[in-house]
Write a structure and sequence with these properties.
With 286 residues, the protein is of the alpha+beta class. It has helices at residues 2-13, 18-82, 89-93, 147-155, 269-284; strands at residues 110-111, 118-124, 131-136, 142-144, 159-160, 164-165, 174-182, 188-196, 202-210, 213-220, 223-229, 249-254, 261-266. 37% of the residues lie in helices and 27% in strands. Strand 3 (131-136) and strand 4 (142-144) form a beta hairpin. It is elongated, with a radius of gyration of 37 Å.
């Protein structure tokens, strides 16, 4: 009996063979890997959630910045037009009594269907007087301002600023023309005319000193529609004035009162869609 107990004691004290040790090592490694993997998983999950939250916050901040920028841009441009309410008396007198109304960013913005018949394409350099030329949207008809009308514009050093030239809704012999003169104060003296295509008569209907250029765009039942922009140059190769960009303001000339007055106008959705499609088509061809 004593010998057997000694034998068992020897067996218990004997170190495990090599295979037993490797099993223990593998089990330890497996447990370590599981623990490490779990830690990495939860760490990465936490990082992903934090990243998503950061991106969401960033997008929210970007939207707020964009909204504020658009509001600031609109308010700035409105202020630029409104600032001419303090124009000097000499500038006001240059309107020749045609009625220089104050421009206000009123809340009663009008909208409606806008039509236009001719596009301003430049001047006819074959003429001694370089008459401004308008062509029908279909290309079937052209209108060249009379020599007398051209002389009037040239004498005053006015530059025609139309995007389009609409016909009067009541008298199809009348189209509307806009022009401007740069001033030494970096402002623009804007003019709007009615032009009789049969008699060649150019009649001033509105004038305004402002920091923006009024460019005839079309006509609605409310009156002639203008886009107000900062430059008479190119606004971009694929830029459409109909797309309703933030750098353009829109007005119509209300002639229902004692004096003509510009009032806020919102482009109808069909025109905005048309403009954006024009830009997309242009960009796709680049």
């Amino acid at each position: 009996m004593k010998q057997r107990m000694n034998f068992l004691s020897d067996e218990m004290r004997r170190p495990p063979d090599g295979s037993s040790r490797w099993v223990g090592v593998l089990i330890a490694l497996l447990i370590t890997a599981v623990l490490a993997g779990s830690g990495v998983y939860f760490f990465q999950k936490n990082n992903i959630e934090m990243a998503k939250a950061a991106l969401k916050e960033r997008d929210s901040m970007r939207q707020e910045i964009l909204t504020l920028k658009q509001q600031l841009n609109g308010n700035t441009q409105s202020a630029e037009f409104n600032s001419d309410n303090t124009a000097t008396s000499s500038a006001t007198q240059s309107s020749d009594g045609d009625g220089t109304a104050s421009l206000t960013d009123d809340k009663n913005t009008e909208t409606g269907s806008v039509t236009y018949d001719f596009k301003y394409i430049g001047i006819d350099k074959t003429s001694k007087y370089w008459e401004p030329v308008f062509t029908a949207i279909t290309g079937a008809q052209k209108i060249i301002l009379s020599r007398k009308a051209t002389e009037t514009l040239s004498k005053n050093k006015e530059t025609v600023s139309n995007f389009f030239a609409p016909k009067d809704l009541m008298n199809k012999d009348i189209i509307y023309v806009s022009s401007f003169i740069p001033t030494s104060t970096k402002q623009f003296m804007n003019y709007a005319y009615s032009y009789n295509v049969k008699s060649g008569e150019l009649k001033k209907v509105y004038s305004k000193l402002a920091n923006l250029i009024l460019k005839t765009l079309g006509i609605t039942e409310k009156g002639v529609v203008f886009a107000a922009v900062k430059t008479n140059g190119s606004l971009g190769q694929c830029y459409s004035i109909w797309a309703g960009h933030d750098d353009s303001l829109y007005y119509y000339l209300d002639t229902s009162g004692a004096k003509p007055e510009l009032k806020s106008f919102a482009l109808p959705k069909d025109k905005i869609d048309q403009g954006r499609q024009e830009e997309a088509d242009c960009l796709s061809k680049k």
